[in-house]
Amino acid sequence: MDFTRKLSFLVFLLCVLISLKNQNAETNKASWFSSYSSTFSQSPLSSRHMFSASKMEQKIQESQLSRPLRYDYYNESCPQAEQIIKSTVQELYSLKPSIAPQLLRLVFHDCFIEGCDASVLLDSYDGIESEKDSPPNESLKGFDHIDIIKSELEGTCPGVVSCADILVLAARESVLLAGGPFYPLYTGRRDSTVSYSEVATFDLPSPQDDVVKITEKFASRGFDERETVSLLGAHSTGMIHCKFILNRLYNFGGTKRPDPSINSEFLTLLRSQCKNNRTLFTPSASPAQTPSPSSSISVLSLALIQDPGMKMDYEGSGSGFGMLYYRSLLQGRGILYADQQLTAGEDTETWVRAYASDASLFQKEFAMAMMKLSNHRVLTAPLGRVRSDCRRIDLES
Ligand code: HEM
Ligand SMILES: *[C@@H]1O[C@H](CO)[C@@H](O)[C@H](O)[C@H]1NC(C)=O
Ligand SMILES: *[C@@H]1O[C@H](CO)[C@@H](O)[C@H](O)[C@H]1NC(C)=O
Ligand SMILES: CC(=O)N[C@H]1CO[C@H](CO)[C@@H](O)[C@@H]1O
């Protein structure tokens, strides 16, 4: 396809630019961002990117306490690191393609809450209340896969590669496997020594949020409406559980009616997948999973056991990543209320239309938004540390 070729050329160009930059030893994030925007300056829509790049520069200059991320940070300490992550994700994916969306969602939940510091991976223990245990984290998956990748890396270069870098690099690989774009990433993130369960509860967007709430929450993290709309394109892929949409299908806002913004054919389809079955919400006599000792199992997680979920499936099989999601939104076929709300705001709808009609524009902008997400408030040395177990904060070191 012509567009794929164009895209790979752009990516190639970008990598060249980056490696050139890299020759000035301490490349910094800010100049890299501007070179990225100018690479794409032929796009008629790029003026706002320039703007956000300079805002970004300002922010970065304000926080020069710690070292910037670097291209190929592990080039000496663990030169195989990125290759190991890549091939392990590919292997896991060939056994279970569902890991790609799981890892992608995981990076969003990590980076959105207090930055990309692998705090989302921490288990609750010894009085640490984990982000995992905050309600919006319900049904997050992929932790085992991160553990597998981490143990591969620990086998090769013990104590070197941070969980935070593993997470963003594994998510990048996942995006690619799901049919999305490649994007270059700097490395050198360090892992947090705290988890932010309360922040996660209140700050992560909810599936019931309207467009105002959604854009506010993303804006508070420095993402404009355009970037927000492109990030939500991640919902092209993966699973969704009925409990996130039952109220839309049967009792929207307590009306005992469905959400009027759902296309009626689509409503029938969704209702056939998600029956209004009250037993979904009552505890089962024989729990299929043993609850972890530290957390009491909630009614919601019991519901999950009986709610196997359905594919978001905007893409059909193997038809790429992105465009169909936006086209579906324009037809009232958004699955989550929050997805459909992207067509309810004037600016957000403009971007939904743009991405629905231009797949390469979407791929480009999704790539940029993912890079920005992956660099959101990172911890770098001397802050943070490299955890040897992604689920635990080692007390020594
Ligand atoms: C308004 C913002 C968002 C809301 C309300 C939201 C909510 C949700 C919900 C409720 C699910 C279904 C989970 C399940 O049933 O197990 C989901 C899945 C998913 N989300 Fe989001 N999300 C948002 C933004 C994002 C962003 C920015 C990304 C990534 C860049 C993302 C990536 C994913 C992926 C890949 C899945 C599928 C997970 C899987 O298959 O296991 N989401 N999201
Ligand atoms: C690794 O990268 C640093 C900084 O970019 C550079 O100074 C060094 O020469 C590189 N080492 C190797 C082995 O390529
Ligand atoms: C509701 O769900 C339960 C448990 O999955 C199932 O046994 C039952 O047949 C369902 N009832 C209806 C009306 O679908
Ligand atoms: C994967 C994971 O740890 N999910 C947790 C999310 O939070 C709920 C509590 O709200 C836990 O029960 C889940 O185990």
UniProtKB/TrEMBL annotation:
Cofactor(s) needed: Ca(2+); heme b
Disulphide-bridged cysteine pairs: 78-157, 111-116, 163-390, 242-274
Active site: 109
Listed SUPFAM superfamilies: Heme-dependent peroxidases
Molecular function per GO: heme binding; lactoperoxidase activity; metal ion binding
Residues annotated for substrate binding in this entry: 205
Annotated residues for binding of heme b: 235
Annotated Gene Ontology cellular component terms: extracellular region
Pfam families linked: peroxidase
Protein EC: 1.11.1.7
Location relative to the cell: Secreted
Alphabetized PROSITE patterns for the sequence: PEROXIDASE_2, PEROXIDASE_4
Keyword Oxidoreductase: yes
Binding positions (Ca(2+) 1): 110, 115, 117, 119, 131
Domain Plant heme peroxidase family profile intervals: 68-394
Cofactor note: Binds 2 calcium ions per subunit. Binds 1 heme b (iron(II)-protoporphyrin IX) group per subunit.
PANTHER family, alphabetized: PEROXIDASE 25-RELATED
Family according to the record: Belongs to the peroxidase family. Classical plant (class III) peroxidase subfamily.
Function recorded in the entry: Removal of H(2)O(2), oxidation of toxic reductants, biosynthesis and degradation of lignin, suberization, auxin catabolism, response to environmental stresses such as wounding, pathogen attack and oxidative stress.
Protein name (database record): Peroxidase
